[in-house]
Amino acid sequence: MTPPPPIAIGAHCSASGGLWRTIERAIEIEAEAVQFFGASPRAWRPTNHKPEAFERFQALRAESGIGQAWLHGSYLVSLAPRNEEHYEKSIASVVNALTVAARAGAEGVVLHSGSHLGRGFEAVLPEVVSAIERIFDEAPEGPVLALENAAGQQGPIGGSFGELGAILDAVDSPRLCVCLDTCHSFAAGYDITTPEGMADTIEEFRREVGLDQLAVIHANDSKQGLGSGRDRHENIGDGHIGYEGFRTILGEPAFAGRALLLEVPGIEGDGPDLENVRRLKRIRDEVTAS
To answer: What φ, ψ does residue 238 adopt, rounded to 5°?
Structure first.
């Protein structure tokens, strides 16, 4: 029997200075996959990447052996805001991100869907579906859109697997999938730190979303406890998920072949670093050897 493909350990890296710099920075910290912003995550204005930037990115990625590459969408995006201008800007922002992903040859875009602002998920679902359908109509073919599960703060859209599944069912597009964040899952009450809790989590994900729709994973420890509802990332092993929790995560067969992308604060506070990459790799090696 052929063993499942290994989990790839990657990280979010800065694109400051040019898209290809994400690959250079990923190489420096021994990452096997990469995530980056295609534009400022806190501004609406898109970055005008020149053709040679995409060429250098793709050439260096191929040369380095970096596997999956993902963009992360703007933090300003909301697929169900209270005003039309914000709605239109959000759609345009995601279309631009998917366009950059297509030109870079990236797998797709990870997206926070925003908040229902107290209106309730069912009330905003039609707006969310309409926004995603427009995005796919206007964006180039190729890259997927991976909706990220939320931690539970401020009425998020996608705070449960059931909500994510409802969006995927309503849109019914092969380009729509899910990014699972370990910190967000833990904060939302999914106990992924023990074999029993992980089994329950995977079963709910399988039932509500479908494992085939799991495209990528964010690997973050949590500063806050189980069910806190607070999105507070911590370095691997230093939070409430801990080393044992990540042994459970990296030993989960359903995650085989996926990329785990670090979005941690870093030991020196500069974001994902060599130490966090090596911590995850050591855990992966231990799990593989056991």
So the answer is: -100, 0
Which residues are 181's β-sheet partners? Answer: 218
Helices (H) and strands (E) in the chain, counts: 9, 10
User: How many beta carbons lie within 10 A of that of residue 30, not counting itself?
Assistant: 12
Could you tell me the two tokens for 194?
Answer: 């023990």
Element of type H or E holding 252: none
* Active site amino acids: 42, 72, 75, 112, 148, 181, 184, 218, 231, 233, 263
Element (DSSP H or E) covering residue 224: none
Rama region for 177: left / alpha / beta (φ>0; ψ in -120 to 50; rest): beta
- The Cα 273–Cα 289 span in angstroms is 25
What pTM value is reported for the model? 0.96
What is the number of other CB atoms lying within 10 angstroms of the CB of residue 48? 7
Distance CA 72, CA 67 (A): 16
pLDDT for 21? 98
User: 7: which residues sit within 8 A by CB, 6+ positions away?
Assistant: 250, 255, 256, 257, 258, 259, 260, 284
**Backbone phi and psi for residue 156, each to the nearest 5 degrees, phi listed first:** -70, 150
pLDDT at 117: 87
